[in-house]
Amino acid sequence: MAKLGKADVVSQFKQLEDALFSIVGKIPTYFRAPFFSYSDIVMQTASERGYRVINANIDTKDYENLNDMQVGLRNFRDGLNAGGSIVLAHDVHEATANTLVPGMLAEIKNRGLKGVTVAECLGDPVANWYRTS
Mutual orientation of helices 6-24 and 40-48 as an angle, nearest 10°? Predict the structure, then answer.
């Protein structure tokens, strides 16, 4: 998105909002730019449209290690050890969904932690999680 002009950025947001609203009847108030690629235009447009921009501070790099999810799990543990709390993993990959996610959930449980939504992690009240327009 970083290379798009204002009109194209607005169009991207609008297409996503329309699609999500037609499926779930709500629009999320959180936004992570694809590939964490954003510009001042993207940030300004996100703000104007009522989004809170988020980033991950733990990158499992699962997409780089699809044949060895132990790398992703090690990256997850290292990220937790460094104080990270928002994880980037890609559930579109079978290995991530079937191997990495269960491993991360076990690690969370073993540490006495609890998996929560981004909104809960940020301490945002439920009323702020979605909007209808």
Answer: 40
Q: Is 76:87 a contact under the CB 8 Å cutoff?
A: yes
Q: Do the Cβ atoms of 62 and 102 come closer than 8 Å?
A: no
Identify the band that residue 88 occupies on the pLDDT scale cut at 50, 70 and 90: very high
Q: Which two tokens stand for residue 106?
A: 């076990």
Average pLDDT of 94-105? 96
For β-strands 27-28 and 58-59, DSSP reports them as unpaired
Predicted local distance difference test score (pLDDT) of residue 85: 93
Beta bridge partners of 30: 52
Per the listing, tokens 């988020």 go with 54
Phi, psi angles (nearest 5°) of residue 87: -105, 140
Reported pTM: 0.83
Nearest-angstrom CA–CA distance, 55 and 76: 15
The amino acid at 123: G
Alpha-carbon 54 to chain mean position: 7
